[in-house]
Amino acid sequence: QDIDGSIAHVNMLAKQGIVTNEERFAILNGLESIKSDIENGTLEISPEYEDIHSFVEATLIERIGDTGKKLHTGRSRNDQVALDMKLYIRDEIGETDALLKELLSVILRIMKENVETYMPGFTHLQKAQPVTVAHHFGAYFEMFRRDRSRLHDIRERMNYCPLGAGALAGTTYPLDREFTAELLNFKGATSNSMDSVSDRDYIIELLSALSTIMMHLSRFSEEIIVWNTNEYRFIELDDAYSTGSSIMPQKKNPDIAELVRGKTGRVYGALMSILTTMKGLPLAYNKDMQEDKELTFDAIDTTKGCIALFTGMIDTMTFNKPVMEASAKNGFTNATDAADYLVNHGIPFRDAHGIIGRLVLMCIDKGISLDELPLEDYKSVSPVFENDIYEAISLKTCVEKRLTKGAPGPKAMLDAISEYDAYMAE
């Protein structure tokens, strides 16, 4: 990023007649050779220099002589580092977005394969109403889709070039800042030179967005951890994404899910750190702002790694469909539909609610589900019940009757999947 910024800067200097074309070509050749040597490993970035800027400039002068000293004309390290960081963040937003898109493609595949895979939906960690795996995963599709939208917004808002702002007050050289911005694919040049060198809002916004991504991954990880327990047995994790215990041979621990959940706090910490660093800084540049680098690099690497590993984990896990369906039945998730059955036969909902509550208690005493309760027991509580109660409370019926937009019914889910397919093709 530092070299790319310098290439654009020297091209602008030549356009404005501040350096000659001969000097431009010499500097460009030197910069390209440094970039190539760093990339192929023949040139190591030396710690003897104060920073990356002085390393590149010193190496350039060493290679092309005094002409290299003209590279820094019309700029300061303050606007240079602001540019470098924006170019870096812009690249990392693109890479993070690509990882999120891959995660969404896996979620969408799972949805397509599980439109009729029944499972309990929960509120307060209590079984509530029957849903499907497709519906449950669709909720996470929405979360990660919003995450991509946030990253897009951040990129749009930050995409203005600070180079040419100087230390804080611009420069007396006749720079064409808009030309520099155009060469580096920015929408334009920043509008205030003091803000240009002291703005770190885009880093705060990015760390906030990464924290939200990690929060979503952590929520999803928590469910994977719960579903993986012996009590639930909803899923089976691939061996590549889990480990055994060092002393208990029966264990299969959800390591990746737990690590993702744990590393969420690390990314949160980066956000809190930069917010705290920036809160008392007067204009313009202050050395405190150097603290933005290490924590931002770490948060980006952590988030990208977590997205990639989480994607692999859910891509390879399998669902214990009979266990999930039995869990939905035994958790009385169809109780609301049983109450609706009574309402459809003229009984006020509040009375229907009480009747079904009595039936649930009866089932608990007998150790059975509503689906297994004999008709005479239904009629002992309310004579309204007939044989069609069993069809009305089957998981298939309970799910299929929910056809409103966003509901788990197959038509609503297929409509959502079609929308998601179009979104992924954009």
Task: Explain what you see.
The strands form three sheets. The protein has a two-stranded antiparallel sheet. Strands 3-4 form a two-stranded parallel sheet. A two-stranded antiparallel sheet has the order 5-6. The protein has 17 helices and six strands. The mean pLDDT is 95. It is mainly α.
Overview features:
5% strand; 17 helices; elongated; mainly alpha; two-stranded parallel ribbon; 426 residues
Number of helices: 17
Topology, number of strands: 6
What order do the SSEs take from the amino end to the carboxyl end, as H and E? HHHHEEHEHEHHEHHEHHHHHHH
Gross morphology? elongated
Task: Report the β-strand fraction as a percent range.
Answer: under 5%
| Low-pLDDT segments | none
Mean pLDDT: 95
Radius of gyration: 30 Å
Summarize the structure.
This protein is mainly alpha-helical. It has helices at residues 2-15, 21-40, 52-64, 77-113, 133-158, 177-183, 193-198, 201-227, 255-278, 292-316, 321-330, 335-343, 349-366, 375-381, 389-392, 395-400, 410-425; strands spanning 118-123, 126-132, 160-161, 188-189, 235-236, 318-319.
